[in-house]
Structure formats: C-alpha cells, structure tokens
UniProtKB/TrEMBL annotation:
It is found in: Membrane. Residues 33-338 form the Amino acid transporter transmembrane domain. It comes from the Eukaryota. The chain crosses the membrane at residues 62-82, 117-137, 157-174, 186-206, 226-245, 266-286, 310-338. This is Amino acid transporter. It comes from Solanum tuberosum. One of its GO terms (biological process) is amino acid transport. The keyword Transmembrane applies.
Amino acid sequence: MGTEFIDNVSLSHEYHDHEKELDAGALFVLKSKGSWVHCGYHLSTSIVAPPLLSLPFAFASLGWWGGILCLVIGALVTFYSYNLLSMVLEHHAHLGRRHLRFRDMANDILGPRWGRYYVGPIQFMVCYGAVIGSTLLGGQCMKAIYLLLNPNGAMKLYQFVVIFGGLMLILAQMPSFHSLRHINLISLLLCLAYSACATAGSIYIGNSSKGPNKDYSISSDKETQIFGVFNAIAIIATTFGNGIIPEIQATIAPPVKGKMFKGLCICYAMLSTTFFSVAISGYWAFGNQAEGLILSNFTQNGHNLVPKSFIFITNIFTILQLSAVAVVCYTLYCFVIIHVSDVQYKTG
C-alpha cells in the first residue's frame, strides 16, 4: 500500500510539473479531485440519456425475447468492456503513462499519427453528432411544451433550437470536468424522473380504454424484418456505447484502484432500472405501434392520452437532462477544436 501511495504521489507531481505543457483538453479533465460517487454521476450522464426513450421502438422490431436478450447482452458486454478499459488505464498510470483521453491511449498504443488522424476524428464526430442531436431534441421538447401552452403558437422549431443552443453556451463555461459533478448529479435524478414518468404513463395508457389495441406481432415481410432487426440493434448499441471512460477516470483523486468499478456499479444500477422499465412498459402498452420517442405515443390524433400537465412535466425533465448530456459532449467537442488550433499555432 505504501508503494502504491508513493507511485500515485510521484505521478501527481510529475503531472503538476508538466501541466503547462498540456493542451486545453487535457487540463479540462486533469482536475483529479473526484470520488467514486462523482464518477458514478459522470458515467450515468454519459450513458443513461433520453435515447433510452427509443427502446420500446427497438423492441417492436425484435419482439419480447429478442428485445430483452439484446438489452441483457448489451448491459453485460458494455459493463465488462468499460471495467476492462478502466483496468488498462489504471495499469498504464502505475507505469508512469497516464492516459487522460482516448487520443492519449491511441498515441501510446498505435503511435502519434494514428492517434491524431484516426481516433481523434472519430471522437470528434461522435461528440459533434451528440451535440447536434441533443440540441435538436432539446429544441423539439421545448416546442412540444410551447404547443401545449399555446396550441396556435407561431414560433418555429429553429427558434427553440437556437434558445437551447444558447443554454449550452452558458453551461459550457465550466472550468473543468470535475466542475460538472453537481450538474451530473441533477442529471441522474432527472433521468430517474422522466423514466418513471414514461413508465407510469405507459402503464396508465395500457390499462386505459383510450389506449391502442396491443399487437406484438413482427412484420411478415422478410426485408422489413431484417432491416428492422439491424435498426433495433443499432439503437440499443448506441444507447449503451457512449461511455467516456478515460476522461471520467482522469477526474478521480488518487488512489484510483476500485473507485471506477464502484462508479460503474452506480451507473449500471441506474441503467438497469431505467432501460428495462421504459422498454418493457412502453412495448407492453403500445406493441408494434411504439414510436421512435415513446413520449410521442402519449398523444394520438391530437388527443392527449394522459393529462396535459403530465406531458408538460415529462418534457421539462427530458429537456433539463438533455442539457447536462449536451454540455458534456459540447465541452469535449470544443476542447478537441481548441487542441487542434493550439497544435497548428505552435507549429506555425
């Protein structure tokens, strides 16, 4: 234990000595003061997000057994791979090669050229896509609330997208990833809230005479079946595969050993609660009529199947949690750009 403590102290001093040489992206994640609880907040925000509201739609193409099996396999495989990645990062940190980001790992494993021109662009595209998707979805939820309050309103979708984007610019002024811990705690609670609302609304509609006739049959057309299965698997894989393990592990105070595993346990306890409850209740209530966003099923032909205030509150929870997810992706996206600009400036 004494040796481990000395290693961690010397590693910490080494990084303090070279802090001025690190780029803005590295400095953003390097503030290593977090606990395993904070790690759980960060992981939950990066993985458990509003796309889980699309899981009933994925079940509509896979059926009961196929949908549940894919969810279970996805949870087991991603938990194992995230934990394994965490152990690899911890091992390299003890060897004196601390990896703060995926690009740092690629530089060490594949070489600097592969790290810069292969892994860097992929992470950039993922963050860029997540920022755009989260901002558009946030704008759509804001417009849905606006139309609930003012059915004849004249405001357009792009106006709400701009408003939501402005909120992202404000939240993105956080000085470090560690500074997001309070926002990510609220994000965790909000995710539990809108998942509970989606589950309760589905159960209410499923037991109501207003609900649609339940049909769990899968399309008999082979081509539709094949494309539906691939689409459903892609939805489930995308929902699970958003963990930013190196960046989150870099925020943990030394010694790191065991803390990342505890954080993953918090994340996957929440993941199991939300993913399975929303997917099963939504598919049970709407069958193969489940839409891409389960909240869209709460309104049919202009008529609300649940109270208007319930839809309003659920959309509010979703917007607020989306803002936390988007700001994490937005800050990582921004620091990728800053890093590239910094390198170009230094090299002339």
